[in-house]
Every structure is written in structure tokens, then in C-alpha cells.
Amino acid sequence: MTVAERTPTPEQFAAIRSPNPRRTMIAHPGTGKTFALVELIADMLERRDREPECITATTFTRNAAGELRERVIDRCGGRACGVLFGTSHSIALKIVRSRARLLGFPSRIVIYDEQDQTDILKDIIATLKLNRCTLSGARDAIEDRRSGAPGAWEVQELHAAEEYEARCRRAGAVDLGWIIPLALKVLRTDRTALAEWHRRARYLIVDEAHDTAPPEWALYQMLEPVELAVVGDPNQNIYRFRGTSTAFLRAAAAPPAEVVFLTQSFRSTEPVVRAANNLVSHNPEQPPEKLRSAAGSGNVNAVRSSTFAEQATVLVGVCQHYLSLGSVGLLSRTNRDLEFQVRALRGAGVTVRELTTPRAFYALPEVRAFHAHLRAVYNPHDEVATRLVLAHWPAAPAPR
Asked: Residues 322-363: pLDDT tens digits?
């Protein structure tokens, strides 16, 4: 069944057709949230005759933005071509790039990752002989300068933060944490840009609102949408360590907003749903409407909890069984999971040889060097990229 052939559930229909310019969907897992978003945008374009160039939809990741865009185009065809899809950071970057010169940057802006920032700060500390300055102190001083928060920082840490910003401006580079503050600066100081983005986000849709950080919240407020549709689930706020919270979701659900609960799960059977409801009942922000299954009763013994010790016992038993046939290859989803598994196996006397690397793919030296060469060609002012190229390929000519 295609997206166009599906019929929204009563819950989804209420969220899609609500006349309230402020609406919030509390969408539990597997309840057809993305389908509801696709139908909401289709309703805006087809029934309400909203201009596609005035609709902006933000998601938590680039992959989610790409999937939503593809499904909306499949549903609405060419009518949807003007709709803007992206993350809060990608939208903020569009704002920054549109006013790069006014912000003191070259016309072409590149993005520095955490390793790039580390390389620059190490060079600053060494070159300027800032012996009392630490990397963490410099980073904290950088963040406080951007947010305007007061901080009792050492003179050397503040000096490092100022020099870091100056080097980034010369190189035409911003790091991830700087993008939204710069976009906010544009909107607060440039009335023409503010008017452009008021129109561009006249109808604003915010997905995964339970993981919104304060700068993102400030950006949405600056956009001042005429209509705001927010989607989230307080039980899925898993990025608090990055500074996100459910505060924006709670604010978006406050009167006069209309709140609609999507509770009918198409993904999980009744035992799984029952176990999930029991687990999240400990969350003080648990919504009043609980998840319910539309996928049948399933296997009543399908769900049981287990301790780390039980998991380790099962893992060791399975590996020892297959070791009698030869060597065993163990694949793990994350390095953290693998650490637990290796520790359990070694504790049971199993010889383990690790082939994994703690570095992410884009942090590998050869990958960074290749990426740096592309960056240096795109932006000749990028000193960090140029140094990386010359360090990895000493005989290579500097990009022009």
C-alpha cells in the first residue's frame, strides 16, 4: 500500500486537520508519526493551499530530513518542490551562509568538526605559550563567549577562545556549536534576513521536539511561525547529555495549542507494548495516554528482562560452543557494547583479538587528509585543511 492509498487513523486525522495554528503531536513509537507528517504537509499544500516556499520542516538528523522529503514528494509530486527540509543546524547554516560577508567570513564557509577544533586549540596553546590553558577550559570559554554566559575564566583561556574565533573567521570556518548562535545574530541584526526567514518558515514543523537544545528553541522563536506543528515524545528524550530537554515540547503543548496523542502502535505486539508501558511508567513526564498495540497479541513470552550477568553468560556459552568448530567472529553495534562483551569473554578465559578501532571513520588519518584536500580546494582560506594536506602528502602542492 502506498502512502497515498493509506487512510489516517482517527488520531492522525485529528492532528492533520486541526484548525488550530498551534498543534502538538505526542507520538509514541511505531504510531505512524512520519506518515502523519507527510499527510500534514500534503494537507497544507492541497487543501489549505499553503505556498510551498513558506513551509519549513525540521528533523533531528539529515537522514530523517531526506526520508521525509522523499515521502512528501512521492505523495504530492512537484507541488512539494519548494518545501524546505533539514535539521535545525542545516537551516541555521543557510542563514549564516546568506550573510557570510556581514559576519566577517569569506563567501565560502566550511564546517570544522571536533578534531579540527582540537587541532587549532593545540596549535594556539603551543604557539602563544599558554601554559596554564587546558583544552577543556578553552572549549568552555568558547561556549560561554557565544552564549553570553559569564564565566570566571583564566586570562589565557579567554585569549585562546578569542584567537580560536579569529582563526575560524580568517579560514571561513564554523564548528557545529557556532552555527545557530551566528544564525541568531543574523536574525537579530538584519531586518531583511529576518523578514526573508519569517516568510520561509511561516508554516513551521518541528519533529523530534523532545530533543531540542536551548539554542534551537531560540531559533524557532526568532522565526515566529504563523503556524507551528510540533511532534515529540517525552519518553524518547535520550540526548540530555548533549544539553537537550523536553522544555520546548512542553512549551509547545501549553494552551492555546491543541495536543493530539498518537498511541496506536503498528510496530509492536501486545506483550512488547505492555512491557514498554511498564518501563516508561517510571518517567515523571509520562504522557497520560499510554501506547496500545494494533499488531495483535503475539507471543506472550516474547518479552523478559535480563541482567548484564545473564547476558554475559549467554554470550560466553554461545561463543564457547562455536569455538569447538573453529574461530568465532563477533560483530557489535557499538564500541561500548563491544567493551562489555570482550570483558565477559576474557573473564571466562576466552582468547579475544580485537580488530575494531575506537576512531570513527571520518576521524581516520587517511580519511581526514582526503576530506581536507576537498575542503581546501573548496575554500583556499581553510588553513587547517591545507596543513592536513601538506602533512599527509608533503610533496603535494598547496591547493590554489
From this structure: 888 888 888 877 777 788 888 888 888 888 887 766 566 777
Banded model confidence at residue 377, pLDDT cuts 50, 70, 90: confident
Residues 6+ apart with CB under 8 A from 293: 264, 265, 268, 269, 270, 272, 273
**How high is the mean pLDDT of the chain?**
87
CA pair distance 276, 53, nearest whole angstrom: 40
pLDDT tens digits along 43-75: 999 999 999 999 999 999 999 999 999 999 999
Query: Can you say whether the dihedral through the CA atoms of 188, 191, 195, 200 is positive or negative?
Result: negative
Compute the distance between CA of residue 392 and CA of residue 272 in angstroms, rounded to an integer. 52
Is 264 in a helix, a strand, or coil?
strand
Q: List, as one string, the DSSP characters of 123-167.
A: HHHHHTT-TT--HHHHHHHHHHHHHT------HHHHHHHHHHHHH
- How far CA 268 is from CA of 11, 97, 194, in Å, comes to 18, 43, 44
Residue 89: all three cell numbers together: 543546524
Q: How far apart are CA 253 and CA 263, in angstroms?
A: 17
Q: Which helix (H) or strand (E) holds 229?
A: strand 227-232
As a residue count, the chain comes to 400
Residue with cell 552564549: 147
C-alpha cell at 386: 591545507
Give the pLDDT of residue 2: 46
Question: At residue 344, what is the residue type?
Answer: A
pLDDT score of 400 more than 60: no
259 CB-near residues (< 8 Å, 6+ apart) = 23, 24, 26, 253
What is the rounded CA–CA span in Å between residue 44 and residue 55?
Answer: 9
Among 268, 322, 314, 323, smallest CA distance to 290 is for: 268
